[in-house]
Amino acid sequence: MSSLTSPFVLQAILIAGESERIQVDLLGEDGRVLQREIEKLTRNPAGTFQRFEISFEIRAVSEKGYIRISTKDDFGKIQALNTMPVLLYSVGSAQVNPPGNMIYERVMVEGLKEKAKYYAGVVTLKGRIWPFNDQPVIVELLTQEGRPLSSRILTFNGIDTQSFETTLPYKVSEPTPARLTFRQDNPLLGVEDPELGKLIYVYTVEVILNP
Fold first, then answer.
1. Which of 91, 163, 192, 200 sits at 20 to 30 Å (Cα–Cα) from 107?
2. What is the 3-state secondary structure (H, E, C) of 69-134?
3. Is it true that domain 107-209 has CATH number 2.60.40.10?
């Protein structure tokens, strides 16, 4: 919850999805887009330093806001999305708080690797999740075109890191690339983005589903 005035500088280490495009949004408290930056970024698993100068205008003296960064895969589907809540002020001076430990994902699945192979019509998952809020976490298997193959709804008690176990049944007739997706919404957003909806967090891994 850093306090920000316009303009401010956003510095981040970013890893682009397979689309090699990064989208940075500054959202007002209702979800309206105050500024949007879309950058071409060569995919580098080690991350690439990026600097953005963000400007905004708000009518009130202050309001809550969100910095949301997202990237897509080479099929145009969301590959990763993360959000940082901030406070926006129309006057005054900025106060940037230390980012804390933000280098780890909110989702950890035991033994899961990129392009992991699954067989016999079921994906078994076990791990830990750090929920962003009290909304359920949706776990899905999606085809490369975005068609859902299977889904589960995970609910949690509070927003502390918690363990989970679940299974996702699926049906395929041949080896099928799919994206295992964890996503959570922000119910405080009154305005829904045409592409990103009310998403506050998305974590995905490409997997291979076999009959």
1. 192
2. EEEECCCCCEEEEEEEEEEEECCCCCECCCCCCCCCCCEEECCCCCCEEECCCEEEEEEEECCCCC
3. no
Q: What is the pLDDT of residue 100?
A: 63
Tokens of 132: 């962003």
- Give the chain's length: 211
Which DSSP symbol is given to 55? Answer: -
Region 180-190: what's the mean pLDDT?
Answer: 97
Could you tell me which CATH class the domain 3-89 is placed in?
Answer: mainly beta
Look at residues 126, 120, 150 and name the one whose alpha carbon lies nearest to residue 138. Answer: 150
* Closest listed residue to residue 143, CA positions, set 206, 197, 61, 198: 206
Q: What is the mean pLDDT of residues 28-34?
A: 96
**Residue 31's CB: how many other CB atoms inside 10 A?**
19
Residue 42, Cβ density class (10 Å: 0-12 exposed, 13-18 middle, ≥19 buried): exposed
Task: Outline where DSSP puts E strands in 155-198.
Answer: 162-169, 176-185
Question: If you average pLDDT over residues 170-191, what whole number do you get?
Answer: 97
Mean pLDDT computed over every residue of the chain: 94
Segments making up each domain of the chain, as ranges: 3-89, 107-209
Q: Do domains 3-89 and 107-209 have the same CATH topology?
A: yes
